[in-house]
Structure prediction request, 153 residues.
Amino acid sequence: MLETGQKAPDFNLADETGKKVSLSDFSGKNIVLYFYPKDSTPGCTKESIGFSQLKDQFEKLDTIILGASKDSVKKHQNFIKKYDLTVKLLVDEDGSLCEDYTVWVLKKLYGREYMGIERATFLIGKDGIIKNIWRKVKVKGHVEEVLETIKSL
Prediction:
């Protein structure tokens, strides 16, 4: 289980355009890396819209926003187009990023157990160290809470 104070695991994944992106591409910036279960589902859509709406405020604080799920490039493109999202979305089809960030977990729904992505957000500082982790995120008010936390860095 990842904890604050640890070095953030690096990655090299495609974004919504198919271009490869690495953690090191954003050195010198804070990074908000949020994991969500699936494109175009209600909670995931609200969260992604929320980060998109406040993107300018995050950027003023030297912060990049990256969303991540196991959806494909095509699904990410459709999701972005449908909801006018402005955040960068990472494609983690093989689940390696989810594993590295310990968000691929056993979930329960109506008594059924299955593996899935835990809604979680990691705040990675300019030094590559994890500054804050939010697990089992409730969407309402979350984006604002992350923004306030960055202001206090």
Summary: The chain has a mean pLDDT of 97.
